[in-house]
Specification:
The protein has 336 residues and is of the alpha/beta class. It is 32% helix and 20% strand. It has eleven helices and 13 strands. The strands form three sheets. Strands 2, 3, 4, 6, 7, 10, 11, 12 and 13 form a nine-stranded mixed β-sheet that branches. The termini are close together.
């Protein structure tokens, strides 16, 4: 098992960070963790996307408000910073830009972990999976029409020229390989409710225990559901030459675009945990899947948000522990 280093802030460190900001010297950010929402408080209640990260790195950190950002930024003494950025492409990317441009922070050598929950197609994933993104694809940049207005059975999406430089991002394969290797032996959480829910789907992938995987993260403000739109997402991934569509989410490609314009994308990882399938099982309609009866929802949310941090933290901690080897980019060879 890879040793995981837990970082924290002493009162003296908090004062030091406050003094640094007050003196005009920016905080040197080594890793920035961006999540999209939190359910309630940052600790002590039901966990959303931010809570497990917060409890690992920032329980003693002072929140720093940034004009234009959705929520405050937290930093520890090792240079691990993070914030809740907000849900959706516009919300999250606006927050990221505000934080990137704020003079209190130096992002010139920073790595980024874009972290959150998501959906997955039952043919490739299951509840509780954590997926390292290899490609980020924008689901929305193109033309769409109603199926009855096109050729029967033909795709109803066509790319629009002019979006080529920001509808598709390949994430750094070396950095992804590090993330996968460092999380290879992480024991993922699961629940009886999730195990029972998976059995409603005939797919082997859907019925499997959760694991760590890789693939394309499809970013769209539309919370799409159903086999038709799932197939369309796979079609778009293939059309753009990306890997198989594994995750549907609402923010990563937009945040990556903001980071790319300032610092490039070589230090970005997108890490998503699957809390739902992107379509109903064969015995329910898409609408029934979207609006389930009481007691019919998928289990495993609490376990999945914990899994995301369990999978992502070893990479964060390795970057910090071996900063001299990482500050100029990921080491070329993946080591245990």
């Amino acid at each position: 098992m890879i040793e995981v280093f837990k970082t924290g802030l002493s009162a003296l460190t908090i004062s030091a960070i406050g003094a640094t900001i007050a003196s005009g010297e920016p905080v040197a950010v080594k890793v920035f963790i961006g999540t999209m929402f939190e359910i309630g408080d940052n600790t002590g209640d039901r966990a959303g996307e931010f809570q497990h990260w917060y409890e690992r790195y920032w329980t003693e950190a002072e929140p720093q408000d940034v004009p234009g950002a959705f929520k405050p930024v937290y930093c520890d003494d090792a240079g691990v910073c993070g914030a809740v950025l907000g849900m959706g492409k516009v919300n999250s990317s606006a927050s990221m830009q505000a934080i990137l441009l704020h003079p209190d922070y130096d992002f010139s050598q920073a790595y980024y972990v874009l972290s959150g929950v998501a959906g997955t197609p039952p043919s490739r994933g299951t509840i509780g999976d954590v997926v390292w993104g290899t490609w980020l694809v924008d689901y929305d940049l193109g033309h769409r029409w109603a199926p009855e207005e096109g050729e029967p059975g033909a795709p109803v999406f066509m790319p629009r020229s002019g979006y080529e430089s920001y509808r598709l991002f390949q994430l750094n394969p070396e950095l992804v390989a590090w993330g996968v290797a460092l999380s290879d032996d992480v024991e993922l959480r699961d629940s009886d409710a999730a195990r029972q829910y998976r059995q409603r789907y005939p797919d082997a992938a859907a019925q499997a225990a959760p694991g760590v995987k890789t693939g394309t993260h499809m970013t769209g403000d539309t919370f799409f559901h159903g086999p038709g739109l799932s197939n369309e997402a796979q079609y778009i991934a293939e059309l753009y030459g990306a890997d198989d569509y594994m995750i549907t989410e609402m923010e990563a490609a937009a945040i990556a675009l903001v980071i790319d314009r300032e610092h490039g994308t070589d230090r970005i990882v997108s890490l998503r945990g699957a809390v739902n399938f992107d379509q109903g099982n064969p015995n329910e309609t898409t609408l029934q899947h979207l609006d389930p009866a009481p007691g019919e929802t998928a289990g495993g949310f609490a376990e999945t948000v914990e899994n995301i941090t369990l999978v992502g933290a070893p990479l964060v901690d390795r970057i910090i522990a071996d900063w001299e080897q990482w500050k100029d980019g990921p080491p070329a060879s993946v080591a245990d």
